[in-house]
Design goal:
417 residues, two-stranded antiparallel ribbon
Length: 417
């Protein structure tokens, strides 16, 4: 591995603008093609999100729901991977961490509470009652525990101040382990087909061969449509951001991640509004968290090394370490809150308020980090001293035993309460 001292001149050159980051704005194209250049990508992204969501909803009857959501997370993450790859190729380390940490904090701080809000609104409209908590399905213990592994490893990465190719290998191994664990969960039983919305229910009423053909087609065409429209979508939004005076750094940290995560937020909201589907919506977001903590982070030093032309590590200064620590603290708290296999209204509210505080007041980053860590400490005390058990661990042990014993049926969903 190259020493830090020998890499400083090259890093300085990169930061001085030898490869300045840019998502190419379609300004020239707009002059000739008109308003359509900026408008067509948005409906294509929306359509792709629905196609992929329908595919994942049907796929859970062929493979485990968790594995279907993992595939969904990969397809939905295409825009985010594309943006991060462009930044890593530019060798602009501050922008790498800004986009990476900003996207993760958006998923937990805005995405999770938004799911709860949509589920609560749907419950109020259907039943006229206040939703106090989302109860996770027993099989969701895999996602909850898998989320903790890369978070804890990133504490080590933050401590040593570098992201290396070795770290990329470790993160890849964590993700593969997560996928292997998902295989323990059997597909959904056919009796749940009647709970689906009109389009996926119609697909699942087709003959087996027809189901498989349509499901694969939804994933393929949805993924291709997203791949084709994600770049122009981000470019058109950058055009408007520049027109409204949004700074490049602010765009990289918040606007670009929000837009690149739009497909997964859309599919999660689609499920959250349905009765009994809030756990699936929340796990859609958690799967995206796992994907970004592992595969997205692993991609950064790989692309960075190819850009430089030799094996390199990504160095972090004090400011970037602070951003990573804030993101780790937030995700750690989220994982601990889900470890009791539920998500309470007060937890969703608290996570949103803390995210909003550090979003509006960047000078409060250190304070918010301490609040996250203090809240996490309280949760740990409650788990160890009061509950004396981690519900997610207990559910995983039961799932493991069932898988080893007979491969049993899928755990029965607990839904909402």
């Amino acid at each position: 591995m190259t020493s830090p001292r020998s890499t400083r001149p090259r890093r300085s050159a990169a930061r001085s603008g030898t490869r300045r980051f840019a998502i190419p704005p379609p300004a020239a194209a707009g002059a000739s093609a008109g308003l359509w250049t900026f408008l067509w990508p948005a409906p294509c992204v929306v359509l792709s999100a629905f196609l992929i969501a329908w595919g994942a909803e049907c796929a859970q009857f062929w493979i485990s729901r968790g594995l279907a959501l993992a595939i969904l997370a990969w397809l939905q993450a295409l825009p985010e991977f594309a943006v991060e790859a462009v930044i890593a190729w530019s060798q602009h380390v501050p922008f790498m961490t800004a986009n990476f940490t900003g996207s993760l904090r958006l998923l937990v701080g805005l995405g999770w509470p938004l799911i709860f809000g949509v589920a609560a609104f749907g419950t109020w409209r259907r039943e006229g009652r206040l939703l106090r908590r989302i109860e996770l399905d027993p099989e969701n213990c895999i996602e909850v525990l898998a989320l903790g592994m890369p978070i804890l490893y990133f504490v080590f990465i933050d401590f040593k101040r570098t992201l290396t190719l070795i770290d990329a290998g470790v993160l890849l191994a964590i993700y593969v382990t997560y996928l292997c664990a998902l295989r323990m969960v059997p597909p959904r039983e056919t009796e749940h087909i009647e709970d689906l919305e009109t389009i996926p229910r119609s697909i699942m009423r087709l003959p087996k061969r027809g189901q498989l053909t349509v499901i694969i087609s939804l994933f393929v065409f949805g993924g291709l449509l997203l791949y084709a429209s994600a770049g122009p979508f981000l470019s058109s939004m950058l055009h408007y951001a520049v027109a409204f005076g949004v700074s490049e750094y602010l765009f990289i940290q918040w606007v670009a991640p929000f837009l690149s995560e739009f497909p997964e937020k859309l599919s999660a909201m689609y499920w959250a509004r349905q009765k009994g589907k809030a756990p699936m919506a929340l796990m859609n977001m958690v799967s995206a968290n796992i994907n970004q903590w592992t595969m997205l982070a692993a991609m950064i030093p790989v692309v960075y090394s190819f850009s430089v032309g030799r094996v390199m590590f990504v160095p972090f200064d004090d400011h970037q370490r602070g951003e990573i620590l804030l993101t780790v603290a937030q995700s750690l708290l989220g994982m601990l809150l889900l470890s009791n296999m539920s998500f309470h209204i007060l937890e969703a509210t608290g996570i949103f308020i803390l995210w909003l505080a550090q979003f509006i007041r960047p000078d409060l980053h250190a304070t918010v980090t301490l609040v996250y860590l203090a809240w996490s400490s309280v949760e740990l005390i409650l788990i160890l001293a009061v509950r004396r058990r981690v519900a997610a661990v207990a559910a995983f042990v039961e799932l493991w035993r069932g898988s080893k014993a007979s491969g049993g049926g899928a755990p029965r969903a607990r839904g909402l309460s």
